[in-house]
């Protein structure tokens, strides 16, 4: 139902206009889910339930997904302060609405599917060395052909002692990638999404990040499915630090 309604609206309203009015429009949809059993930790609305979409749970008020709410939880565990210079690649709109209030926050997107101030190519970030205290690179690297170059650029623009938070879809075993797979249909079959070019393993991605200089600490989170904030019951975030 949610996907059908979203598709219908996108066919009527241009995407950029919809992005601008999205939060206001969502209020009416939220009224059907108001309650006291759950609470989105991004918009703080209390809910009777989250919207079930495929293998995810969406907040009807702000549109946050499971991984977005977990990211917000991680960010507030000592990663952001008023002086932090932050670079965020293709941010979720629910987080963007909060983070843009910080004058040191810079959002970037090339696709046009996200709200952003700049359009950096992650394999050639047009800014000076060691500019940012924190970089958020969530579900980006699996889209990038030259992921090693992207990791080198993340390392270059991060300050010494700074952190980069990285997450992608993960699988067990080895990284699976095949440069000969080009068609969107085959990429969806092989990599899980039409615009993905690989599936990482946790160990494989850590090794690549360490090879460009990062110190990497995987943070694994588990929750009961019926947790208050609708977190994913099983997910991993890589905390990548640039040595001093």
What does this protein look like?
The protein has 244 residues and is of the alpha/beta class. The chain has 7 helices and 13 strands. It has 2 domains: 64 residues, no CATH class; 177 residues, Rossmann fold (3-Layer(aba) Sandwich), CATH 3.40.50. It has a 6-stranded mixed beta sheet with strand order 6-5-7-8-13-12. A 3-stranded mixed beta sheet has the order 9-11-10. A two-stranded antiparallel sheet has the order 1-2. Strand 3 and strand 4 form a beta hairpin. The chain is globular. The model has no long low-confidence stretch (mean pLDDT 93).
Give a brief outline of the structure.
By secondary structure, this protein is α/β, with parallel strands linked by helices. The protein is 30% helix and 26% strand.
Q: Could you name the ranges where pLDDT drops below 50 across 5 or more consecutive residues?
A: none
Oligomer state of the chains in this structure? single chain
User: Which CATH class of the largest domain applies here?
Assistant: Alpha Beta
Arrangement of strands in the largest sheet: 6-5-7-8-13-12
| Structural class designation | alpha/beta
Largest sheet: 6 strands, mixed
Number of strands: 13
First-last Cα distance: 50 Å
CATH superfamily of the largest domain: Vaccinia Virus protein VP39
The structural domain count equals: 2
Question: The CATH topology of the largest domain, please?
Answer: Rossmann fold
Helicity level:
25-40%
Number of helices: 7
Query: What form results from the Cα inertia axes?
Result: globular
Order of helices and strands: HHEEEEHEHEEHEEEHEHEE
- Please compute the radius of gyration using only Cα atoms: 18 Å
* Beta fraction: 25-35%
CATH architecture of the largest domain: 3-Layer(aba) Sandwich
Whole-number mean pLDDT: 93
């Amino acid at each position: 139902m949610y996907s059908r309604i979203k598709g219908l609206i996108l066919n009527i309203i241009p995407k950029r206009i919809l992005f601008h009015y999205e939060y206001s429009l969502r209020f009416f949809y939220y009224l059907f889910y108001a309650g006291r059993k759950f609470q989105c930790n991004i918009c703080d609305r209390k809910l009777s339930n989250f919207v079930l979409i495929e293998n995810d749970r969406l907040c009807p008020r702000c549109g946050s997904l499971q991984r977005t709410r977990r990211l917000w939880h991680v960010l507030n565990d000592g990663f952001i302060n008023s002086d932090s210079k932050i670079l965020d690649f293709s941010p979720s709109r629910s987080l963007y609405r909060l983070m843009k209030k910080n004058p040191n926050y810079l959002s970037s997107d090339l696709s046009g599917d996200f709200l952003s101030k700049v359009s950096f190519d992650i394999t050639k970030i047009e800014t000076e060395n060691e500019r940012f205290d924190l970089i958020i690179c969530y579900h980006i690297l699996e889209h990038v052909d030259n992921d090693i170059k992207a990791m080198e650029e993340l390392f270059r623009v991060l300050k010494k002692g700074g952190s980069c938070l990285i997450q992608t879809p993960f699988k067990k075993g080895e990284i699976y990638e095949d440069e000969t797979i080009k068609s969107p249909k085959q990429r969806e079959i092989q990599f899980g999404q039409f615009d993905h070019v690989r599936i990482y393993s946790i160990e494989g991605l850590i090794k690549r990040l360490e090879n460009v200089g990062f110190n990497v600490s995987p943070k694994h989170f588990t929750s009961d499915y019926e947790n208050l904030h609708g977190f994913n019951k099983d997910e991993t975030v890589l905390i990548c630090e640039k040595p001093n």
